[in-house]
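Working notes for the structural subgroup meeting. M.R. asked for a predicted model of this chain before we commit to crystallization trials. I am recording the input and output together here so anyone reviewing the notebook later can reproduce the run.

Input as submitted:
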Amino acid sequence: MVDVGGGVRMHVMQAGPADGLSVLLWGVKDPILGRLLRRTARALPQAPVTETGAGHFLQEEVPDEIAEAIAGVATKVRATADP
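Returned structure, recorded in C-alpha cell form:
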C-alpha cells in the first residue's frame, strides 16, 4: 500500500520481469482521484505520467491512450526479457 495523502492509500503491484516498471495514466477531471496526481507521482517517482482530459472512467473515455500505454509497457517488458 502506498499512502498518497488525503486519506487515500493505493495498492501498487510489481512482479516478474517488469519489476519496478510503472506508468500512470491520469484523468485530471476525475472528481474522486483527480486532485491526487501530484502526490501519487511523488509516491511512484519512476513512473512516467500521462495526464488525460478524462474523468474517472479512463477505459471508456480515452481507450486509445490506455491501449498505447499498455503497448508501451509491453514493449519495454519484451526489450528487457531474457532471450
